[in-house]
Here is the input.
Amino acid sequence: MPKIILTGDRPTGRLHLGHYVGSLRRRVELQNSGLYDKIFIMIADAQALTDNAENPEKIRQNIIEVALDYLSCGLDPSRSTIFIQSQIPELCELAFYYMNLVTVQRLQRNPTVKAEIQMRGFSDNDADQNRKGTPVGFFTYPISQASDITAFRGTTVPAGEDQEPMIEQTREIVRKFNAVYGETLVEPEILLPENSACMRLPGTDGKAKMSKSLGNCIYLSDSSKEVKKKVNSMFTDPGHLQITDPGKVEGNVVFTYLDAFSTPEHFAKFLPEYACLDEMKDHYRRGGLGDGTCKKFLYNIMEDILQPIREKRAEYEQNIPLVYEILRKGSEAARAEAARTLADVRKAMRRDYF
Ligand code: TRP
Here is the structure.
């Protein structure tokens, strides 16, 4: 069976370091590994609209931002098909059929949907007086996501932990479909980040997750100055007042980021007094290592990673029509692929009348 990657992001804003360590960096590695037969990277604009129906222009503008983030991180349109979800109408038809294989009760139990409904104040029993209710499209997006994955016969979905319930639901839909209509669809697997710091990169303020609304993100497109400011304002150990005091690395955002980003090469290049992160952590715990030194090191690492990304972004920003052309071509190729799967699905469901 061919090995096929399908993954994507909602274009609700520019991508940040959480996206980078959660999935983006991995995608580029997998792309360059040559181990995959096909790679599809989707900008999920239709999914973004499920809770942004009133903001179509915002989603439109962010499609380009996300595409620029992809290209500047090294996704290469000659090796990965980058496309826009709404340009593939076949996905809607697949979702329409899959809807019959999923119960309302099962959707209500999806932990990610549950948490997101809560977070957005959509819930009926929310204490908030401005109850908005849950848009049906939002409630059913796990089904649409099953279409996204199966349309491309995705075997591998590199994504963050929050996407696990989505993949699980997709797998259930695939099994049900194949049991009822005959072996047609492929069951995907999620590929999670390799360590827990990457799994859920906290915001610069130490809050559980980077989120635009909390203003605690470092964006891939931030300038050096912005990155420096954000690193310097990072939450550390509030009990570590003097350099000589013993410090805590658990819950210390600077160290969590070092867990996610630092390599032995970074130590050799910027902080050769330590061979590796464990040595540095030991010193911090013992006392005698100041937050300033740790932040400076982290800033150097961030710049090492972000500077080439920034340069590439600046190049593509000079040529937005080229970016659109990449997306148009990608969408055309993706559509052909989805059409093949849809034809198989219709046939299996005995909807191939003529
Ligand atoms: N839900 C993903 C996000 O929140 C975006 C997405 C849509 C996706 N369809 C997908 C991810 C299919 C992986 C596979 O960013």
User: Anything to note?
Assistant: The first helix runs from residue 17 to 33. The pocket of tryptophan is lined by residues 6-10, 44, 47, 145, 148-149, 157, 159, 163 (CB under 6 Å).
